[in-house]
Amino acid sequence: PAPVKTGPGTDHAADDPFTADRTNWFRQDRFGMFIHFGAYSNLEGEYKRPDGSVCRDAEWIKRQCDIPMDAYEKQAQGFNPADFDAKAVVKAAKDAGMKYIVITSKHHEGYAMWPTKVNDWNLRDHSSFDKNRDILAELKKASDDAGIKLGFYYSIWDWHDKDFADPATFPKYEKRMYAQLKELVDNYDPALLWFDGEWDTDNPHNPWTSKDGEKLEAYLRGLNPDLVINNRVGKRRVVDGDYGTPEQEIPGAPVDGQLWESCMTLNGHWGYARYDEDWKSAQTLTRNLLSTTSRSGNYLLNVGPDARGRVPQPSVDRLKQMGDWLRTAGQGNAVFGARYGGLVEEPAWGSVSRKGDKLYAAVTQWPAAGGSLHLKARTEFKVTSARVLGSGQKVTVTKAGDGYDIKPSGAATNATATVVELSVDPGP
Ligand code: FHN
């Protein structure tokens, strides 16, 4: 393939040209599924204390509800996600148009969701689950069969491992962590590792530094040079790893020359919380995806399976609606393989992404009848034609002042967004 440009105006960090090849798929795919699934899921967001009081949280429930470790281990013993259906999870991702999946292999609780040999705090050795099953292996096979890439979230911060909290013994924990990561890379061949918990809030002793992160990153690249690694291996400096990881927000503008991915929940929690019915609409979720793409970012949208391993139906329904919109009339071209518009300023009425010689203006606020939408040009370019995807609506595009006016004929609009495809000649 042609050498990929790096630096401002591209998706690549100026000082990280070799990243280009490794992250090509990541940059094209734009849209992934995050899965938060662990021993916390077994509580489904609620813990009944011995005194009868109820405490609520999701993946942080052990810490936020001050559950003693022995009580937490006891509840985990009853964890039995027998209904976890990897094919159904992958189908839900595919139906959404998602191209990759990142599942929590180990969250801060330290509980490994695979049969690790490093300790017995894991889904095979400490649960009521079928000891012959391996959900990460099931998900890997289903992902491979469906042509979807699989990545693993791994928390550096570990509430269960006693050596984590003591600087004198932290190296022992670090050794176990390296061994677990080697298991994950060797046994499941993930495309991506999503680190988290490289910081600590209650544990000032955690001596983890960016230097440790860089050492870990070098080790992992030695295991597999194609691994895409996020920036949470160090103290979340953007240049650590391959891409930045804003969370629950869409950065205000593309960070020219940087690659990033915004992770968000579908409701109010990462892990499953039975009481949380605050589901975002498919319209909001699709607009988020269009907006992140228009700023050269990826969108990692989360689902939290329940204690039996089932993805909540409201999540599945919204993901299907997103995929249906993306598959309509090529509207997905505004996302897949697309990036920061570059030629125009971001408008207030929507977002603009670019794919080759096409600009995709995703309109979310049409003007009153007779009005038009203005696109302010950042550089000289020509519009050679324009069409609305997904409807018979006509638009005229005319040079106007510092850019172009898009004038719709008639008022037909698309509840989620109306995509106007502009063929452009970007000039020399
Ligand atoms: O503490 C975690 C949290 O539980 C969740 O996993 C998010 C997802 O990005 N990461 C941390 C908070 O930044």
UniProtKB/TrEMBL annotation:
It is an enzyme of class 3 (hydrolase). GO terms for cellular component: lysosome. Its EC number is 3.2.1.51. It comes from the Bacteria. GO terms for molecular function: alpha-L-fucosidase activity. Keywords: Glycosidase, Hydrolase, Signal. GO terms for biological process: fucose metabolic process; glycoside catabolic process. Belongs to the glycosyl hydrolase 29 family. Alpha-L-fucosidase is responsible for hydrolyzing the alpha-1,6-linked fucose joined to the reducing-end N-acetylglucosamine of the carbohydrate moieties of glycoproteins. This is alpha-L-fucosidase. The chain holds residues 41 to 468 of 616 of the full protein.
